[in-house]
From TrEMBL:
<feature type="transmembrane region" description="Helical">
    <location>
        <begin position="118"/>
        <end position="138"/>
    </location>
</feature>
<dbReference type="InterPro" id="IPR052964">
    <property type="entry name" value="Sporulation_signal_mat"/>
</dbReference>
<feature type="transmembrane region" description="Helical">
    <location>
        <begin position="65"/>
        <end position="83"/>
    </location>
</feature>
<dbReference type="InterPro" id="IPR007263">
    <property type="entry name" value="DCC1-like"/>
</dbReference>
<keyword id="KW-1133">Transmembrane helix</keyword>
<feature type="transmembrane region" description="Helical">
    <location>
        <begin position="220"/>
        <end position="238"/>
    </location>
</feature>
<dbReference type="InterPro" id="IPR053934">
    <property type="entry name" value="HTTM_dom"/>
</dbReference>
<dbReference type="GO" id="GO:0015035">
    <property type="term" value="F:protein-disulfide reductase activity"/>
</dbReference>
<dbReference type="GO" id="GO:0012505">
    <property type="term" value="C:endomembrane system"/>
</dbReference>
<keyword id="KW-0812">Transmembrane</keyword>
<dbReference type="Pfam" id="PF04134">
    <property type="entry name" value="DCC1-like"/>
</dbReference>
<feature type="transmembrane region" description="Helical">
    <location>
        <begin position="245"/>
        <end position="264"/>
    </location>
</feature>
<feature type="transmembrane region" description="Helical">
    <location>
        <begin position="159"/>
        <end position="179"/>
    </location>
</feature>
<feature type="transmembrane region" description="Helical">
    <location>
        <begin position="90"/>
        <end position="106"/>
    </location>
</feature>
<keyword id="KW-0472">Membrane</keyword>
<protein>
    <submittedName>
        <fullName>DUF393 domain-containing protein</fullName>
    </submittedName>
</protein>
<dbReference type="Pfam" id="PF05090">
    <property type="entry name" value="HTTM"/>
</dbReference>
Length: 639
């Protein structure tokens, strides 16, 4: 029988489907991914006028944009908590594609990780990320449990739920990025991790000179990074390779967060390493953190439907095994503190005993539970505050005294029937394997097209097709790239290459003259030349990758200056019509090989006045006198 690529892929995938592993890593990944999305949405909300207004504050974008950002934040929150996860994942994916592809973020505000997040969001729709640490799992427990028979949702998943996103999202990205690095002189010199933190527009406030000034250490880091990126895809499948890859990858991306001002990219990559953590580590972490013996033993009415639901809910959130539940009817007589309470009184409250045999009842029991579970301790402390405690006791008493112990109410656990049985597995392993194998082959072909097009042919031909046939192939490849870039996140990863840094020897800053005639820096680029917080991520990208580059385009510079002065001028409380802004320039060094203490050298270079920015009748004007420096930068005023 002929062996085909699809057949091999199907066989491997079927084997992966049969191997079941804990879903803990997926749950951790979902939570961290949701938090990264949330922080990016909050960033977009803060800079909504900067990014989406045609002229910040003066010509405002539709308020619908702000409303959609709110809906997107709700979807990200649902992903974080695992509530209606599938629907939230679909909404999150659509929001990423819409905002990145159909707003100003498409061209001027590339966050550096948008396509990566689009690909992750697409995967999130299909991954069983709600099987651990989710409210969806709690909903299933409540829905499919019945008195005396608790339902436990599946807590294991196919190992492919970890392997496939690692291969496509990280393995393909690393391999593609490594191919590009082979054509970059400073990467081949081992200085790939050294150069960006020495360039003021890219460095973080944290002075890493103690490491940057170690030539040998930077060479080791630079070459190790290239080897790591080539090795990740073929090696992460093997059990013994995962821990080393995990530790090296975490070190590299933590270094990005600490040394550069593109922290969203660093955090976006870091959260995916939850998928690479060896499965045994999650068990060991839980065994280390969990209580060996319960902190609190809680006694509840076994015949009370509301009590049974309460037990299910608390057990779901008690991930450290701090609380042990026992039925009053069955166990009360074994505890003297409870046996002394009359039966009629006993069944009117929920009781608890701590390790010191102290007895708690009612609201005090719930406060003890919240404190014992550690993660909910702040809620327990708030519940015990004067005033709140008294209100909680009144509410508790009303519910406890009016609950139905045996009759069914809206709070009852549903009786199981064919209509609400747990959903069965509807597809065979073979059918799933066939579909996944074809999808993987398509993903591989899309990545090969992207890597060959930009990583090889584009650079060999210097960006131009060598023949008519080459032009046709290039056009077809570009069309495929547009689709894969926009909707799957598969895109070239030629980040921080020589053709961006080489010749990038001047940077610009903006000051203004205040009412007292003093010159002050806008809260954007400071006197050292660093882009200051919170202007990081995609705002930094707009300025350092679009408005100011090694070959400055005057129209793009004017557009960037318009946004910066209108936004930060208004935020600073300036009257744009009466304020004169100065455009400053200073020379820096961006060599392709190591130089000692380059970070401090670039920060200490002096500024020179280059031009002026003024506003009149809602329009900005840039005046740059014709000078040798302006001509060198290519932004001299037209004659």
């Amino acid at each position: 029988m002929r062996t085909t690529l699809t057949g091999l892929a199907r066989a491997y995938i079927r084997a992966g489907l049969e191997k079941q592993v804990p879903a803990t890593g997926l749950g951790i990944f979902r939570i961290l991914f949701g938090l990264v999305v949330l922080q990016e949405i909050f960033f977009l909300i803060y800079f909504r006028h900067f990014i989406y207004d045609p002229i910040p504050f003066l010509d405002q974008a539709s308020p619908v944009v702000h409303l959609y950002l709110g809906f997107w934040a709700m979807a990200a929150g649902c992903i974080t908590f695992g509530y209606h996860t599938r629907i939230a994942a679909v909404a999150n994916y659509l929001f990423w594609v819409t905002f990145v592809g159909f707003t100003a973020m498409w061209q001027d505000f590339d966050g550096g990780f948008d396509q990566f997040m689009i690909g992750s969001s697409l995967f999130l729709i299909f991954l069983p990320v709600n099987r651990a640490l989710s409210l969806d799992a709690l909903r299933d427990k409540l829905k499919f449990s019945r008195p005396g028979h608790g339902y436990t949702p599946p807590t294991e998943v196919s190992v492919l739920a970890y392997y496939l996103p690692l291969a496509v999202l990280m393995g393909f990205l690393y391999f593609d990025a490594a191919i590009h690095k082979l054509s970059a002189p400073f990467w081949l010199n081992g200085m790939g991790s050294w150069l960006p933190p020495t360039m003021p527009y890219y460095m973080s406030p944290l002075d890493m000179s103690w490491l940057l000034n170690q030539h040998s250490a930077e060479s080791i880091i630079g070459y190790t990074l290239i080897v790591f990126q080539f090795a990740f895809l073929p090696l992460f499948w093997f059990k013994r390779a995962r821990a080393p890859l995990l530790l090296i990858g975490l070190s590299f991306h933590t270094g990005i967060v600490l040394s550069l001002n593109i922290y969203p990219f660093g955090f976006g990559m870091l959260v995916h390493y939850a998928l690479l953590v060896p499965f045994a580590w999650w068990r060991s972490i839980h065994a280390f953190l969990a209580f060996k013996n319960p902190v609190l033993t809680v006694f509840y009415d076994q015949e009370c439907p509301l009590c049974q639901r309460t037990v299910i809910i608390i057990n779901h959130f008690d991930i450290l095994d701090a609380v042990d539940f026992k039925g009053l009817q069955e166990h009360a007589r074994h505890y003297p503190a409870l046996d002394a309470i009359p039966e009629q009184t006993l069944l009117t409250d929920i009781y608890a005993l701590d390790r010191n045999n102290r007895l708690y009842a009612g609201v005090d029991t719930y406060i003890g539970i919240l404190l014992a579970m550690r993660s909910t301790a702040p809620f327990g402390a708030v519940l015990g505050l004067p005033g709140i405690l008294q209100l909680a006791r009144l509410f508790y008493r009303r519910v406890a005294d009016n609950r139905s112990r045996t009759g069914c109410t809206d709070l009852c656990l549903p009786a199981l029937s064919g209509a609400n049985d747990p959903p069965p597995v509807s597809q065979t392993q073979a059918r799933i394997a066939g579909r996944l194998s074809r999808l993987m082959i398509v993903a591989c072909l899309l990545q090969i097209n992207s890597t060959l097009h930009f990583g090889l042919f584009y650079r060999l031909n210097d960006g131009h097709a060598s023949s008519e046939a080459g032009q046709i192939v290039e056009a077809a490849s570009n069309a495929i790239l547009l689709l894969s870039h926009s909707f799957t996140g598969i895109t070239p990863h030629a980040l921080y290459m020589h053709d961006h840094f080489q010749g990038y020897n001047h940077i610009l800053g903006i000051t203004y003259i205040d009412e007292q005639g003093a010159e002050r820096w806008l809260p954007f680029v400071n006197e050292e030349g660093r882009i200051v917080t919170p202007n990081w991520g995609r705002i930094q990208s707009m300025w350092a990758n679009v408005a100011v580059t090694r070959h400055i385009d005057l129209k793009r510079l004017e557009k960037g200056l318009m946004r910066v002065t209108a936004f930060w001028g208004t935020e600073t409380g300036l009257n744009l019509e009466k304020t004169r802004f100065k455009l400053k320039v200073k020379e820096i060094r961006v060599p392709m090989d190591w130089e000692y203490d380059l970070r401090h050298y670039n920060l200490q270079q002096p500024w020179t006045d280059l031009g002026a920015v003024t506003w009149k009748n809602g329009s900005m004007r840039l005046d740059i006198p014709d000078s040798a420096l302006a001509q060198q930068l290519g932004i001299a005023a037209p004659k």
